[in-house]
Amino acid sequence: MPPVGVDEWAARVEERREQRAGLVGQALAAWDRVAPVWRLVLFAALVASVPFLTDSDFIIRVGVNTLLLAMLALGLNIVVGWAGLLDLGYIAFYGFGAYTYALLASDQIDVHLASWLAIVCVVVACAVLGFLLGLPSRRLIGDYLAIVTLFFGQVFVEVVTNLDRVTLPGKDEPVDITGGPNGIAGVDPIQLFGIEFLTPTDYFYLSLVVLVILIAGLYLIDNSRTGRAWRAIREDPLAAGLMTMPVKRLKLMAFAFGAAVAGLAGAIFAALQIGVFPRNFETPFLILIYAAVILGGAGSIKGMLAGAAVVGISFELLREPDEASWIFYGGVLLALVLTVRPWRLLAGVLAGVVALGLALHAVVGGLWPDAVAGSPRADWAFSSAIDNWLLFPEDPKTIGNWAFVALVVGVVWLSQAGRRARLLALVPLVYLAAFVWENRLMLDPSVTRQLMLGALLIVVMILRPAGLFGAKRIEVA
Amino acid sequence: MDFFVQQLVNGLTLGSVYALLALGYTIVYGILKLLNFAQGEVYMMGAFMGYFTLVALGGAASPAVPVAFVLVLMFLVAGLSAGVLGVAIERFAYRPLRDAPRIAPLITALGMSFFLQSTALLLFSADVRNMDTSELISPSTGIHVGPLDISLVRILVIVSAALLMVALARFVAQTKLGKAMRAVAYDREAAEMMGIDVDRTIVAAFFIGSVLAGGAGVMVGLVFDRVWHLMGFTAGLKAFTAAVVGGIGNIPGAMLGGLLIGLAEAFTAGYISTTFQNLIVFGLLIVVMLVRPTGLLGSPAIEKV
Amino acid sequence: MEPLLELAGVRKSFGGLEVIGELDLTVAEREIVSLIGPNGAGKTTVFNLITGVYGPDEGSIRLDGRNLVGLPPHRVTTMGIARTFQTLRLFLNMSVQENVTAATYGSTHARVWQSVLRTPRARREEREVRELADEVFGFFGERMAGYRRDQPAYSLSYANRRRLELARALATRPRLLLLDEPAAGMNPHETAEVTELIGRLRDERGLTILVIEHDMHVVEGISDRVVALDHGIKVAEGSFDHCAGAPAVVEAYLGRVEDAA
């Protein structure tokens, strides 16, 4: 219910909430009091220190990927969070940027532009493409735009996969423009200001610098007439138009800017990966970007950074079998902590889950030794404990499949059940989830990552449409 | 000439399938103003259920029961399981968001589509399944008169799709539930105040749309002999295009759009190349959006300011 | 004297239903004209036609002699027409300050790169925008003063939301103001305030005002002239007393009693 009535008191709600929230609230309040410039400097310093604190190549790679994801989230935020346009083909701009850079800086068509020039070309080309895609959008309502852009993203991948046998007038043999399904390899590294960027650490710093500049630029735009106009369009395009804002032109600008940002990220990505392949730009990656944006609560810069950090790092961790379980068990624990109150009840549920497991392991294991003959797939910190707690059938795949279906059905049922039933069912359901995780999901890590992304989007939208880091919004349908 | 007729038949078959899918989209959109991206995945699940039924009955080469029974059972199982899936999706994912801003259910639908795709990949692996229809029904059964060379399967698909569409149109026009659906599509609050059970009506719409999608999935499996986890995504996209081209929310429009898209695709594949199919369909979408943003049979939405 | 706003022979139909039929309407500079009529008479449609939300099927609409038909809404607004809405259409999730400053888009010209680099011109424009906002809020005296202008618009009370919407309209520097039921949902005290406010808008700021209103106290209190519409046609025009008594107007609102046979 929008607080209508006593304005002054309502306006102080946030203040009161912060004063009450204890240490975390105070920390956040203190953060907000720091001037934006210094916040950015602090952020940059923090992130820049990461390569100094670790030798691990893995962590650096995670870092670069997350920084690129942050750029993409910021770019998509312009279109979705600020202008309120649903662009489901955003990934195509990323791909277009990457491929354009690859074409301008590799042997593919034997063009090797200087990096700065190539990047400028990429950004401009993407802006133009964004503008063009935005043209049909001027008259479309959100839903139609979603389809057109989704289709566009799909068509982009297909076109790029098939442009390896193009017959050009004047040439006898077909020309290979995009390398088809094998993409373009041997992309030149980026060279700026005399520095050649070769290692992932180099790209880490490059991405950080670009990100910082982007954050600054977007912050300045957000607090200018353009930013206000974009946000007004998200609120109410008709009213915005009647308040002097040229809605169609602004929508095109949003598309163009968003595309340009994606293109820039794409160029860096191409140089980092030393190649571009069609499969880099398929739907799963689009979902990843959206997950970052949605979790961050589309609309604010710091939300985007937080969303990208959480989603990016989790996703990368899920790639490592030995670390993936942190995300799963951590996630389940977090979900329980956030939803089961008070503390005693939560402790009861957790104890019940542990007890159930141990009991089942003993009983079932005693009767059918085959049921516990297997073992955890990975070498996680707590794997040995889990071995004694869960059932591990000899052939986990079929049982795992059925268990997975049972889990999904169980969760759906849980969402519709009453409170008592919910609490009771929670214990076996959590155990079942762990069972499915260890026995089935861990067998196919790449599919599992996708599953979790999809589930994340669904759950966040249902439970907290403003995302984990977004501000509450009042929407008029 | 033969080739032309062949492509025409292909186009009609494909178009019938797209039309069925598009109907599901358009019905749900009409009622909830929601683009149910997950519809494509429901179609894919229906195809798989049909396939598993076939396998359970002994497979295409040696079915345990007569062929007609096999087909009926396949459609029944696929349709029902798809219907249940569709209803479950609505209750779990869309109902809580009924009054949320438009972007929320769209994102959820996208997530749901992706989740279901991944589930299929997990449970069924990426292997393409073949229904081996030629073993079930010999391709020589059918109409082979002059330039016409249509197998029985395709005839079945076209005819049953047409029958389903006609049945649906009558249902919506004449039955109480159909009228309730139209009322809710027009103005949900008013319908509720007139005593219509909105929840039940919405569930019915989802059920019908999903059953149609499941049936369409089996049809595609039979005609094109390929069932795999990604089949829902592109088919869904094209069925959307069909619904939008015809005028979303508009039932005859969905049928018209489906046939148009099917024919466009068949003729492109036949006369130009299969690689450009999707590009042409996309182009068609853009052209219609630019020229008639509300679709060919759609009525311009009048917004009360 | 050339009227500021002139509608001539305007017709508008929506799919077979004629909503506005052959309407002629003029408003002179610094005049306050009230548009009255029962619900569905087409009054808001007139506003929508003037501001370019729809185009008329026939007829012309001119501001100061210049044609408005065919112009997109943002161009119409920058030419000097602003409006408020029957059901408020604030930018709810933006702050009170931003609702007003967003509406200055049309009178500022800094390009994106100038905004980002904070060039002197961009800074000057932002300063002017802030001054305009202060001035516009100041018009409401104590009501909007000392307000935490950073609070989101959705936290405002109903009366303050109406004031904010008016402030936002004023920020577009209009010559002509279209007010759509400014006193809707207000108690007598607030209604009296609105009446006074409208008068001040004309007297202090030289605005020309076209008001749609149902509350006859307000209409009586502010109008230089009243125009009555019914089913899209003008049924009476003149002073308040003239219109209030006109049989066509009474019939439009209250219906006609059939004589017993």
Order of helices and strands of chain A: HHHHHHHEEHHEEEHHHHEHHHHHHHH
Task: Walk across the major sheet of chain A and give the strand order.
Answer: 1-2
- Helix and strand run of chain B: HHHHHEEHHHHHHH
Helical amount of chain A = 55-70%
Shape of chain B from CA axes? globular
Report the CATH architecture of the largest domain in chain A: Orthogonal Bundle
Please give the domain count of chain A. 2
Oligomer: heterotrimer
Question: What is the CATH first-level class name of the largest domain in chain A?
Answer: Mainly Alpha
Q: Fill in the CATH topology of the largest domain in chain A.
A: ABC transporter involved in vitamin B12 uptake, BtuC
Could you report the average pLDDT of chain B, rounded to the nearest whole number?
Answer: 88
Would you write up a description of this structure?
The complex is a heterotrimer of chains A (477), B (305) and C (261). With 477 residues, chain A is mainly α. Chain A has helices spanning 7-11, 13-20, 22-33, 36-48, 50-53, 57-82, 91-104, 115-134, 142-162, 200-222, 225-235, 237-242, 247-273, 283-295, 301-317, 321-339, 343-367, 383-387, 396-416, 419-439, 445-463; strands at residues 105-106, 111-112, 184-185, 191-192, 195-196, 275-276. Chain A folds into 2 domains: 58-317, ABC transporter involved in vitamin B12 uptake, BtuC (Orthogonal Bundle); 326-443, no CATH class. Mean pLDDT of chain A is 87; it is low at 1-5. Chain B has one domain. Chain B is 73% helix and 3% strand. In chain B, strands 1-2 form a two-stranded antiparallel ribbon. In chain B, helix 1 (2-32) crosses helix 10 (231-246) and helix 10 runs parallel beside helix 12. Chain C has 261 residues and is an alpha/beta fold. Chain C has 2 domains: 5-80 and 174-254, P-loop containing nucleotide triphosphate hydrolases (Rossmann fold, 3-Layer(aba) Sandwich), CATH 3.40.50; 91-156, no CATH class. Chain C is 38% helix and 23% strand. Chains in contact: A-B, A-C, B-C. The B-C interface holds B 299, 302, 305 and C 14-15, 44, 48, 53, 85.
Name its key features:
heterotrimer, A: 477 residues, mainly alpha, ABC transporter involved in vitamin B12 uptake, BtuC, two-stranded antiparallel sheet, 21 helices, disordered N terminus, C: alpha/beta, Rossmann fold, 2 domains, four-stranded antiparallel beta sheet, 10 strands
